[in-house]
Amino acid sequence: MKIVIYLILVIFFSARLEAQTIKIGSLQYGSVNWELKLIKELELDKKNDFNLEIIELASKNAAAVA
Asked: What is the mean pLDDT, run by run of 10 residues, along the chain of 66 residues?
């Protein structure tokens, strides 16, 4: 249990040092893509110290490619 807590703390503090990039693949015509674009438009990713990279895909294999 102590190891898990230690790992969580290490990940938390290392993530706070620099903004991480999160890549998300989604269908370009889906509602998830609309939500992701809204996050980018309102700059919610930058306000929460990460960079969201949206990869628009045209098939149902979005999760496998990302």
From this structure: 66 66 84 90 90 83 60
Burial 21-50 (b: 16+ CB within 10 A, else e): eeebbbeeeeeebeebeebeeeeebeeeee
Residue 24 has what pLDDT? 86
Phi, psi of 12 (to 5 degrees): -60, -50
Tallying the residues shown for the chain, one arrives at 66
What's the token pair of residue 7? 């790992």
Q: Which of 66, 63, 57 is nearest to 23 (CA)?
A: 66
Distance in angstroms (rounded) separating the CA atoms of residues 19 and 9: 17
pLDDT for position 57:
83
Please give the distance of CA 39 from its chain centroid, rounded to a whole number.
Answer: 10
